[in-house]
Design a protein that fits this description.
One of its GO terms (biological process) is nucleocytoplasmic transport. The chain is built from three helices and six strands. The protein is α+β, with helices and mostly antiparallel strands and 151 residues long. It has one domain (6-149): Nuclear Transport Factor 2, Chain: A (Roll), CATH 3.10.450. It is globular.
Length: 151
């Protein structure tokens, strides 16, 4: 098995940055139920604050019961995983999220207040995506996702 090169690590970091930007933009968007579900496959697993969901349909179910959100990513890190080329990626993200808007949440609710979150993703290369050129970021889907409020 070959070691990861600096180029592999640089491409993985770019892929993680690209993914993070797209994912949270979709999550906070008006069409988020379908947009976020597209990041997952039927075999993907999600644990949202201790509540397990399965696949893109489980993600849709979760999103339908959730008020609008606004995420602010404070940091993310990416670790390429040996075995595939391009490698799978373990991406960890931390930041704050606000649930609800003035019109959707009662005024005495704890929502509308930013909450600190930590989220970990296992991204796997998408074999169904068009092949990438050398130096281009690979296409990934979410194989596993674990999100937890930490504050």
């Amino acid at each position: 098995m070959a070691n990861l090169t600096e180029k592999d690590i640089e491409l993985a970091s770019r892929a993680a940055e690209h993914f993070t930007r797209l994912y949270y933009t979709a999550y906070d968007g008006a069409t988020r139920v379908d947009d976020v579900a597209a990041f997952y496959r039927p075999t993907s697993s999600l644990t949202w604050n201790g509540n397990p969901k399965q696949g893109s349909e489980g993600v849709k179910e979760l999103m339908l019961g959730m008020p609008p959100t606004k995420h602010e990513v404070h940091s993310f890190d990416c670790h390429p995983i040996f075995g595939n080329q391009p490698p799978s990626l373990l991406v960890t993200v931390s930041g704050t999220v606000t649930h609800g808007t003035a019109s959707t949440v009662p005024s005495k609710s704890v929502d509308k207040q930013p909450r600190v979150f930590s989220q970990s993703f296992m991204l796997v290369p998408d074999a169904n995506a068009p092949q990438t050129q050398a130096g281009e970021v690979a296409k990934y889907y979410i194989h596993a996702d674990a999100m937890r409020f930490v504050g």
